[in-house]
């Protein structure tokens, strides 16, 4: 979700979509709730570890979808004196919580279950799935179909938002975390189910529980890897990313086209939320302009910026006289600690 990635050709690509995000989340929530129940039933009948790992995976995903919905709702709260720029970043906070849940409840639990099952296998316990051996296979095949349909919904919604970007770049550049998170979750779900099916089938064919261990461990490693990717990308959003190059270009063009603005001396942007951008810019005006002229110029520039880029919700323009040798003031280095 870093801003250095290529930019899509549509404004929706900047944010990652709003209504489409909720549609993908709800589709994933419904699929995961139903699938989790089936997986627990399959594990209860056969005792297959990879089924339990996948059941916990689905529970974690279900909780994650609730977190994303809650984050989206809380982000709509009105600004307050304590939070004057609003609560848009709540969506980033809850997306980061999703990564934590997937890492701990999903990935770490699966690895623990694999280790526990490995001890049993090494002690010489024979894997007997009983007369219900076919139940996990049916459940897993059905779950693969259901998760694939959920993934297809997420892909369709992301197609509307990402424009001509490659999917990997969309996941890195999207300012709204919901669609990238659901895409990663659904992709991990399909792969995890394939790993579980691999473990169940080979365990039944060979009678060797080691294949169940391998399938469970692969699920755990997969979830941890996806959780790390989520955490890294969401951390970038939490720290504060600049607006996309396309949005910055629109703002700069609006300023350049405003009568009385000689040039943009320097400008900084920051996403306060997926669809909220803060712009702070120093603009050069004529030294002959009166205070009234400068005030009118700034009003015109603000109107032009908001028309060019509607996501600009906070805007601060500082008029100045341009000097050829001007250098933007950087934050000073903190004073060195006194020697002891």
Brief summary of the model shown:
Helices cover 64% and strands 9% of the residues. With 340 residues, it is mostly helical.
Structural description of this entry:
By secondary structure, this protein is mostly helical. It has two domains: 12-239, Alpha-lytic protease prodomain-like; 245-320, Alpha-Beta Plaits. It has helices at 12-15, 19-46, 49-74, 90-122, 134-162, 167-173, 178-206, 210-239, 245-256, 291-308; strands at 263-273, 276-284, 312-320. Strands 1-2-3 form a three-stranded mixed sheet. The longest helix has 33 residues, at 90-122. The radius of gyration is 26 Å and the shape is elongated.
SSE blueprint:
Blueprint: H1 12-15, H2 19-46, H3 49-74, H4 90-122, H5 134-162, H6 167-173, H7 178-206, H8 210-239, H9 245-256, E1 263-273, E2 276-284, H10 291-308, E3 312-320
GO molecular function: monoatomic cation transmembrane transporter activity
Protein name: Cation diffusion facilitator family transporter
Subcellular location: Membrane
């Amino acid at each position: 979700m870093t801003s250095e990635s290529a930019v899509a050709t549509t404004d929706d690509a900047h944010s990652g979509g709003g209504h489409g995000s909720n549609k993908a989340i709800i589709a994933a929530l419904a699929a995961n709730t139903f699938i989790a129940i089936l997986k627990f039933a399959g594990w209860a009948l056969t005792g297959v570890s990879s089924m339990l790992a996948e059941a916990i995976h689905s529970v974690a995903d279900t909780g994650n979808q609730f977190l994303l919905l809650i984050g989206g709702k809380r982000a709509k709260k009105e600004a307050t004196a304590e939070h004057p720029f609003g609560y848009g970043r709540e969506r980033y906070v809850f997306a980061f919580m999703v990564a934590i849940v997937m890492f701990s409840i999903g990935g770490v639990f699966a690895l623990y279950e694999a280790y526990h099952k490995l001890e049993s296998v090494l002690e010489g316990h024979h894997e007997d799935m009983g007369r219900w051996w076919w139940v996990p296979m049916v459940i897993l095949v059905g779950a693969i179909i259901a998760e694939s349909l959920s993934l297809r919904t997420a892909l369709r919604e992301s197609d509307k938002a990402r424009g001509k970007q490659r999917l990997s770049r969309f996941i890195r550049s999207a300012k709204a975390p919901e669609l990238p998170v659901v895409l990663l979750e659904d992709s991990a779900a399909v792969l995890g189910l394939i790993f579980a099916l691999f473990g169940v089938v080979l365990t039944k064919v060979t009678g060797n529980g080691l294949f169940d261990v391998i399938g469970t461990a692969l699920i755990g490693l997969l979830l941890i890897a996806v959780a790390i990717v989520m955490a890294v990308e969401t951390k970038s959003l939490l720290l504060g990313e600049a607006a996309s190059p396309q949005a910055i270009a629109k703002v700069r063009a609006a300023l350049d086209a405003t009568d009385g603005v000689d040039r943009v001396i320097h400008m900084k942007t920051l996403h306060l939320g997926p669809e909220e951008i803060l712009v702070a810019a120093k603009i050069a005006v004529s030294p002959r302009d009166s205070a009234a002229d400068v005030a009118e110029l700034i009003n015109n520039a603000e109107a032009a910026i908001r028309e060019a880029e509607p996501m600009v919700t906070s805007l601060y323009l500082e008029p100045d006289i341009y000097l050829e040798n001007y250098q933007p003031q950087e934050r000073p280095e903190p004073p060195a600690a006194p020697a002891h």
